[in-house]
Amino acid sequence: MSRPHNGSATAAEFPWDQVQQLDYQDANTGSIAQACHAMIFAKTEAKFVSQLPCKAWVLMQMRFDGKLGFPGGVVSDQAIPDTTLEDGLNREMEEELALDMSRFAFSKKHYVVSHFCPKANLILNFYAQEVTEQEFKEIEGNALRAEEYGHECLGIVRIPLFTLQDGHNGLPVFLQNQFAGTSILQVIVGLCTHNLMKPDELNTAMAVLPRHQGYRRLVHQAVASFRDRQQTIRVPDLPENRAVAHK
Ligand SMILES: O=c1[nH]cnc2c1ncn2[C@H]1C[C@H](O)[C@@H](COP(=O)(O)OP(=O)(O)O)O1
């Protein structure tokens, strides 16, 4: 299978490129593997030590390899094939989180963005689903009883979406962990597309990611394409968007 279509092929400067989503069968008939991962989050009024707004609880996991990542996995290598990408994602969510499919099944409406890694010949599809605070706590609790808990998933973590007064501890420090695949990019894209990160916070995040400056272009692309698909979702005022608007 040839390289997936990409609006701006500048992969040389960065190992990942945004691509249009292929369907499950396309991946299975070619040599490209596909993975799906998902962000589950709940907006909250809760405050950290009664002062700092938490904004949202965002679920990630400590993986078996010591890296942080979202629940999910490869969906194109199954002995019994999944029918769709979302079937594959939901199968992974049941295995890793024991997610109740009667209430929280992922579908196309939760799709956010896809990136292709030519080196690994792998497409990484990303989804996000908002739940209530009560549901979030339930999902966290259930995850301890999941089949993969203690194996592929060594723990459930929440992203600290606040920065302490020193301007460093909190989100900036969290972002310096090791992340699997594109998951650090997905964190930022997920927060921006779902209005959980303001432009100044995005700039702080980018400043602490010197190894990942290529993500700035990809965050901009991902937010723009998400906005095109979901007209009703307000797009954060990214610096790049302002530059485009002023042209
Ligand atoms: O959360 C993630 N976001 C993006 N890419 C990820 C994430 N977690 C892992 N990865 C990358 C790294 C691996 O190359 C593949 C497969 O991921 P994994 O979840 O380990 O899948 P399997 O358990 O092997 O099915 O994606």
Task: Give short descriptive properties of this protein.
247 residues; alpha+beta; Nucleoside Triphosphate Pyrophosphohydrolase; eight-stranded mixed beta sheet; two-stranded antiparallel ribbon; 21% strand; binds ligand L6YBMIIZ
Question: What does this molecule look like?
Answer:
The structure is a single chain. This protein is of the alpha+beta class and 247 residues long. Helix content is 33%, strand content 21%. The chain is built from 9 helices and 10 strands. It has helices at residues 24-29, 85-97, 101-104, 133-143, 171-174, 183-193, 199-207, 215-229, 239-246, and strands spanning 17-19, 33-43, 47-48, 52-53, 56-63, 68-69, 72-74, 111-117, 122-130, 153-158. The strands form 2 sheets. Strands 1, 2, 5, 6, 7, 8, 9 and 10 form an 8-stranded mixed beta sheet that branches. A hairpin with a 3-residue loop joins strand 3 (47-48) and strand 4 (52-53). The protein is globular, with a radius of gyration of 18 Å. The N and C termini lie far apart (38 Å). Bound molecules: the ligand O=c1[nH]cnc2c1ncn2[C@H]1C[C@H](O)[C@@H](COP(=O)(O)OP(=O)(O)O)O1. The ligand O=c1[nH]cnc2c1ncn2[C@H]1C[C@H](O)[C@@H](COP(=O)(O)OP(=O)(O)O)O1 binds next to strand 2, strand 7, strand 9 and helix 6.
List the helices and strands and how they pair.
Layout: E1 17-19, H1 24-29, E2 33-43, E3 47-48, E4 52-53, E5 56-63, E6 68-69, E7 72-74, H2 85-97, H3 101-104, E8 111-117, E9 122-130, H4 133-143, E10 153-158, H5 171-174, H6 183-193, H7 199-207, H8 215-229, H9 239-246
H/E topology pattern: EHEEEEEEHHEEHEHHHHH
Q: What small molecules does the structure contain?
A: the ligand O=c1[nH]cnc2c1ncn2[C@H]1C[C@H](O)[C@@H](COP(=O)(O)OP(=O)(O)O)O1
Poorly predicted runs = 7-13, 241-247
Give the overall shape: globular
Termini separation comes to 38 Å
CATH structural architecture: Alpha-Beta Complex
> What count of domains describes the coordinates?
1
Radius of gyration (Å): 18 Å
